[in-house]
Predict the structure.
Amino acid sequence: MSHNELGTFLRTWREAVTPAEVGLPAGPRRRTPGLRRAELATLAGVSVEYLTRLEQGRDRNPSPQVLGALADALNLSLRDRVLLRRLTKEAEGGDPLVCGAAPPLGRAARPTVQAVLDRLEPAPAAVINWIGDVVAHTDGYARLFGPLGLFDAEPPNLLRHLFTDPRARTAYPDWSRVADELVARLRHGVPLRDPYLAELAEELTVTAGAEFADRYAALAVTPRSVGSQQVEHPEAGPLRLLHETLALPDDGQHMVVHLPADDATAAALDRLAGRRPGALRAVDKAG
């Protein structure tokens, strides 16, 4: 690796994180507001000498376990862990190593994100974490996907529902395409060797068989941030929906907002919500 990007990244973060942020006393006579090497080394469970070699570029091949420990000690976000992984190359420029320890899997939306959701009512919208758990949602989302069985399990998970609940086959006429896109998002949006991903993939490989495993093994399909979907709803009838995906990279989450693609769908969603027609309006896809 040229120019010691990894060492610069580690040193910059060490100097930016205050002792208070990692539960350490500031102490007297500190020349920098950041962490000392010895403090970071202790938090990460490595020697000061090894951390010095990393920062100075004399060791450029730390193990995924060491990277994970450093990422945990520095409280790195998912986005910064991905960057750390990309900065860490094999000695001769091979594939990036993987940050072995993932940040805690988000099980809730931040208050400000929840406030955005609240203002999207009655539109069906939800916040999804990186393995497909629905961690927050509007009432409109529950009205749309509850009758399909999504919320029968806790936590509700889009992939488990799609691949293991027979009702999903009936609900999505284009089930195969929906499955392709969900697995593509799982494969491309999650740190490799992530333990939560590994656990879910193993579970679905057993419970769903080749329909999941073959898609999971393929990398040709890439996720899309916008798209359309047909739903055969047991209460509202046939629906044509558009969806927009908004990334929340610091949280390892994304927000999905579903919008009616035609007037009939807009009216059907209003009926689900017990509102008079017109609360939701069809979106012109071409516009």
Summary: The first strand starts at residue 125 and ends at 129. Residues 112 and 118 are 10 Å apart (CA to CA).
